[in-house]
Amino acid sequence: MIELKSTRDREKMRRAGRVVAEVLEILRRSVRAGIPTRELDQIADQEIRERGGIPVFKGYHGYPASVCVSINDQVVHGIPGNRVIQPGDLVSIDLGAIVDGFVGDAAFSMFVDHPPNKRAEELLRVTEASLYKGIEKAQAGARLGDIGAAVQEFVESHGFSVVRDFVGHGVGRQMHEEPQVPNYGTAGRGLLLKPGLAIAIEPMVNLGQQYVQVGADGWTVTTRDHSLSAHFEHTIFIDEDGPEILTAIS
Ligand code: MF3
Ligand code: CO
After folding, report:
1. Which residue has its alpha carbon closest to ligand 1 atom 8?
2. Which residues line ligand 1 (CB under 6 A)?
3. Which domain holds residue 218?
4. Per-residue pLDDT tens digits for 222-250
5. Tally of structural domains, the chain
6. What atom of ligand 1 comes closest to residue 168's alpha carbon?
7. Which of 71, 149, 150, 203 would give a disulfide with 133, using CB separation of 3.0 to 4.6 Å?
């Protein structure tokens, strides 16, 4: 069942989105060479709670932290710990919070100090831009496949690959609601998008091949070919006037 949100729900989702956006901005400024990823988790946890939120990742299917920190060939779901961030690392930060019963979910990637090379820099730019290609298609009257097709076409036109094994999702009272929102697909196919639909669009893009694997910790997803991977995500609310990005920095 796909739940359409009311105007009241939307107000609450705006608040959850704002908390996530603010805390992600703090994390962006905190990421630097020499910091153990555990410290980013402590910052995330504290800053979410100070804003009246609850970290939604913590305890989700047993996930042990409040944020995901995925580095270089890690695609998503990296668990913060003792690993120390290095200059040139590609760091992806994914954060979710629940505020007054509704969830906000967003992610970004960044290089620490400098990108290691031109192609890596292009991966970051293209992945972020692909998210906005998808968001543009999140319009009432369009189809779910329009979103995935737009992301995929843009990514592949630059010679990168879209991860298939993980996808975006509906979002609301739960972090993961129907429908699934793939970053690949066929324009004109799939679910008809309606006003009141809230979704998280989250392209995961690899510099090399699309294939990924889950590590021994049961969480960390890495590229099989160990190529770099980037990830950007926003929570979006669709209404008659188009998509509203609930997790944007304003
Ligand atoms: N943004 C991710 C998602 O939507 C984060 C989930 S991490 C988890 O799937 F640990 F909570 F699973
Ligand atoms: Co998500």
Report:
1. 57
2. 57, 60, 63, 68, 77, 94, 96, 105, 107, 169, 200, 233
3. 7-245
4. 999 999 999 999 999 999 999 999 999 87
5. 1
6. 4
7. 150
